[in-house]
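[job 4471] stage=fold_predict status=RUNNING
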Amino acid sequence: MRVFRYHRIDVFTDRPFGGNPLAVFPEARGLDTATMQAIAREMNLSETTFVVLPTKKDAAVRVRIFTVDRELPLAGHPVVGTGFALGMAGRLALRPGRNTVPFELGAGVLPVEIDYRDGEVGSVFMTQKPPQLGKPFADRELIATALGLDESMLDVGDLQPRVVDTGVPWFLIPLRNVAALRKVMAHPLVCPELSLVVGTDLFHAFTQDTGDPACAVRTRHVWWGKVTPGEDPVTGSAIGCIASYLVHEGVILAAPEAEFAVEQGEEVGRPGKVTARIMRQGGAVSRVQVGGTCVHMGEGEIRLPD
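[job 4471] inference complete, writing structure tokens
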């Protein structure tokens, strides 16, 4: 019998049962891809991560990220939660203060910043790629129908729906207010049509009308085309795209760096908070970081036959 231990982590929160839950397998050597995918389906979370030996010489670890139906090249809360779990378990050589640890992901080797003080892991930040922005998408009727909204709920001034990619391509949909965000009900037949047009099946909506005045933006995961266990509570990769877009458009000023909070998860009973750090250089966004705190909820094991 082979035994593989895992940690359960709540990510982007400072209290239990908030943020986004994650399963981390810190020692996954010996598991093939098909078994990792099967375990991710068994865990039935938005993502499960598996830590294996790196294939790149400049990486400390390799982290493979799985949803219940696919492997992802990059995702926010899995990277942040895995950094927290490995630091907490003593699997990384951390010094007091801020540590930069290179993680090998499907999207490449990216630095993860881990704040370590008095034997405890504090905040963890992941670095995403500089944003690639698609063209604004003008078919407001199709978007509104796909999300079950009136067209007027999409009117937010100069911001336009578009795909932004900082490692994963998200179709970002600006909404007028938090009332519109709460009313979203993705149409299972129209959303696939919209995804074919925009080139991604990952949709995320946001509004500057927040519940917490300390937060600059409130967001919501509104559609994921494949089979997933419900709405993703807090989505770090999408928030990196949104934060980059807001700085790119001058909605949030960065001279040269902006740091601000983003809230997500209230609609599904798992409120979380993400800190975005966006650097602008030469008129363009040059660095994207998202991070926050985590809570260790417990641990367990999966037993597999030899």
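[job 4471] summary: The chain has a mean pLDDT of 94.
[job 4471] exit 0
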